[in-house]
Design goal:
Helix content of chain B: 55-70%
Oligomer: heterodimer
Strand content of chain B: 5-15%
Shape of chain A: globular
Number of domains of chain A: 2
Radius of gyration of chain A: 26 Å
Largest interface: A-B, 46 and 73 residues
Distance between the termini of chain B: 67 Å
Radius of gyration of chain B: 24 Å
Number of domains of chain B: 1
Strand content of chain A: over 45%
Structural class of chain A: mainly beta
Largest sheet of chain A: 5 strands, mixed
CATH architecture of the largest domain in chain A: 6 Propeller
Helix content of chain A: 10-25%
Number of helices of chain B: 9
CATH topology of the largest domain in chain A: Neuraminidase
CATH class of the largest domain in chain A: Mainly Beta
Amino acid sequence: MRKTAVINLICIVLLCLVLSPAQARIYIDITSPAIRKLPLSINTKGPSGAKKIEWTVKSDLEATGMFEFVDPDVPGAEIRADLRVDTSDGLKVILTVTDLIENSEVLKKRLDASSMILRTMAHSVSNDIYNIATGRKGIFRTRISYLVNSSIGRKELRVMDWDGYNSKTVVSRGLISSHSWSGDGRFLFYSSERNRKWKIYIRDLRRPVETVLFSSRGLNLVGGTSPDGLVSFSSSRDGSSEIYTIDIHGKRLKKLTRSFGIDVSPVFSPDGGKIAFVSDRGGTPQIYIMNADGSAVRRLTFEGSYNTSPSWSPADDLIAFVGRKNGKNQIFVVKSDGSDLRQLTFSGNNESPSFSPDGFFIAFDSDRDGGRSIYIMRSDGEGLKRITPGYMKAMSPKWSPYFK
Amino acid sequence: MKRSLHIGKEPDLQKIVIASAILHLFLIMLVTIPIKTRERQYRSYSVRLVAPAEIRGEATIAPAIRKKGKAGVKVKPAPRRRVRPEKGVSLEPPAQRVAKEIERLRAISALAKRKKEKEAEEEAVAGAIENIRKKKLGRVSSVAVAGARDSADSDAYGRLISRIIKSHWGYPVELRDSELEAIVMFRMDEKGNIIFHRIEKSSGSRPFDRSAVKAVLDSSPLPPHPVEREVVLRFRP
């Protein structure tokens, strides 16, 4: 007992010692930082291919508008990325990212690829740097599907990197109209007219296999996909165009709308609970939102007499759409409760907005430079960039999800 | 057996009473000590460095500092600012350090030019620091002085350093989130050099923590204070 009493006393004395030097401190609140970009330096070593990787990485990060590149020989950077490129046996990149404020190495990674092309490797590097610098997941390895007018009466379905490079034709048969990615990025759903019949097809991007998801008389146009594997589409099989959902195996067909007007372009909210679509039930085409079972329909857009092509942001409560203003089609964004309407584009005719999987970018097509091309911009309308060549008639971009 | 053990413990009651008395005393101390330091409330000083009209001015000053930093650094390889405080003890600082000091003073005076009221405030701060210094001469314990300090003097000093640190703080708009909050503690020496810093509470976002630490480190040296050496900053976007 004596011992415990002594131990108690010692403990108390120690505690008092710890507590007593709690000398006066100044407590200050600091808010509202200045708007500043993240200073980053990229230091690349290796053969000629190395520079190409560096350029691609810089172009990726530049597009976010968050970075400022600092020469590696000059201080001022907060983060330094070192790239050691070796092309002697396949393609190897050792990426080291250093936090220059705390002076600590935060990432060391070896990227190894025998078959991967240079740009894909560079996009992986961009993702890693972006993640460390911002704490967010990069979209630099996502892709965009789009349509190209290849000849009269024909439209090809193609897929390209997010920056417009590395384009590949996926389907070249028939007249392809709307298209959409599956939630895991493995399948493409698209509507195509072959032999005067509109069907909805599925294409596996890993194998050259095409299957029919839905077929009926009338016009069948695919809209979007939900996280639990449903596909939304519009069909005029009963006369007027209505909204339906179906599962990925072509089962569980559900009719969601029964109105006199035309209902088209159904897209799911990111959680799959709601569907935004276009309807002319009020006299003009406007965007409406309903629950995924077809209940609780409400009108979203009230400005102007023409609002179409809704795209739901995967990250924020934001819907992008096309609205006609002064006779020209422009891209707008609005919250799902109808508030905070903002116009993002101001020149030419702009169509088919589609959000990147992080909601940070919007891809769309526009004729602002003459021919129809695909552009990307940030979701605040800044950082506009054309990603398809001017001579190519490219349209209807659909941004892929993150690939698993 | 159990019984006998029980009886054997009985006489220790007195000791238990003593122990309980000590514990009570300890509890009382626990309660009273926090009262002394209870004024750990974060003070916000409305500085308005990023008022819309002033953003441009801010932007022009920052690159100027950076450029000068670059020019100065080319002479000497990679001088990390964090290392500097230790060197600051030497009586004859290198010319480069002096140049940096001058440039910092210039930046501060440029800030003052933009806001007329700031000049008056700086005088008030100087007066306040002088006040505290005088008081310190008459006392032995610095803690006692801190306790008896004039809150107005402390406010003026807090306002000054809050403004300096804020002028070094930047964060991309795209990454802002109203829930971010980082608490950074730092300690400075008698010359105002920041000699120690620590993240007391991480915001959960590495970039945000990094921006806060950078603002602190870039602010060194701060105007020295005769008494206060430890500052806790709460950063929120």
